[in-house]
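Q: Could you write out the predicted structure for this multi-component system? I'm mainly interested in how the pieces pack against one another.
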Amino acid sequence: MLRVVSGVSLVAERGQVTALLGANGAGKTTTLECAQGLQKRSGGTISLLGQDPAAAGADLRSRVGVMLQDGGLPPSSRPVPLLRHIAGLYQNPWPVDDLIQRLAIDTFSRTTVRRLSGGQKQRLALAAALIGRPEVLFLDEPSAGLDPQSRQLVFDLIAELRDAGMGIILTTHLMDDAQRLADYVYIIDGGRNVAEGTVQELLQRNPGVEAGAEHIRTLEFEAAAGLDVDAVLPDGIAVSETRAGSYSVTGSLTPAHLAALARWWEEHNIMPASMSLQARSLEDVFLDISGKDIR
Amino acid sequence: MNGTAPGPAAGNAPLGGVSGIQQPAPLLRRVLLQGKYEALAMLRNGEQLILAVVLPLLALVGLTVTPFLDRIGGSRVDVAVPGILALCAMSTAFTGQGIATGFDRRYGVLRFLSTTPLGRGGLIAGKALSVLAVLCLQVAVVSAVAFALGWRPEPAGWIPGLLLLALGAAAFTALGLLVAGTVRPEATLAITNLLWILLGALGGIVIPAERLPAGPQSLVHFLPSGALGESLREAFLGGTFNGGAALILLLWTVIAGAAAIRWFKWN
């Protein structure tokens, strides 16, 4: 038996956004599909609104909304008739016109699903997941393919639904999504959850990998291309020219490091076009925990 | 996912201006809605329409103006129409429905709908219903054209004929689902189209078994195509009900249905 997910244990509460964060292939979608009753699990227990999703009937399904990673909408259908059809499967659906207006679906209501852009498809799939006014909402990679405007629209709606008491569980491999949306984050790696907490808790977490790692900061600056910045700083501080003229300096930076760099700039008459200093991001925490191997 | 206690979401703001615990629409309504939705999708699809209506009508006219079916024990059109009705059942239930289901599976439509109150059972029931609805339209159109061409069916043949047609549709629906649920949609497209031509021409559907070579002739009666084609001709030409053929169709339905339940992959 292939064990894709083994050792995931998580709780998602009403009125909260719970994020499953992980690289591609970490087991996020599999976990979600087991919770939705779409995949048979070989072991473990799942309780969704107090019931086992594997044995779910229409009653439970009517209280749960699902947005799949690939949308799952028929390519030849048009948005409005499709939403009206799905609305008919519920006793008290969300009024279709209201959802159409909130998710700006009226701007593409006459286009078939196959011709929609990625962001339009995502908004329609979200509307389809919401039409039953679910108590629990599963979103698999909700920000995939969204342009900045759609992203804002979708994120605002998710926050509003959370405040209205909906329990929202989403997967993402984008740290920014988790940082902006999630009340609680589970980091999934290799089919297990390896860390959990609020975003703040995870940022303050001592990874224990290297002493003082919580003080790791990144300095980024732009200057002329091809400078030998590496020679200025001691070992243990990583310098890279991410693209011509853009430099990234990462490590346990101290005031002395910054002073050395500034002196070197002065000696060589280098005036950076821009510079910024950042503390650890959720991305750094994530890379610390799940390693940097490409998988 | 513990912690989400069952019960009313008391104190929560209503969503979309509506509040209270959600309930599914009644099962019958869900299945009827899905049947209607799928039937309309089938009728709006140009290729499906060609397969379901245009090609059978072309075959009907072709068989009526050529001497191919002469000396079989009825006028050309009387011999041709039952086979064309059987062809319609195969078009819609097997090829059309199989291809649609195959691509729905590819695009995740089956997975999404099975998370809604419709569920897997409702989805399959809706598909079967849409096949029956489209088949009824096909029977109406083909009969109308056939009457215009001089079709005089045995009146006593209608009841056994329509019953056998429904049984045939059930067998071909089960076979279509089996193919669509086990291979890639491109393969489903190839297999169901190829079998439509092969079974239509050589499987006892349009061309009566007695016009086939001796070898295949004995085999054809055990195929769903042969059982349906032959028994429909017996019904509409002679007003008789072929119980053996009905049993063969039933067996194909049960076996293909069980295999589909066992091996159908939803994603």
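A: Regarding packing and overall arrangement: Confidence is low (pLDDT under 50) at residues 207-211 of chain A.
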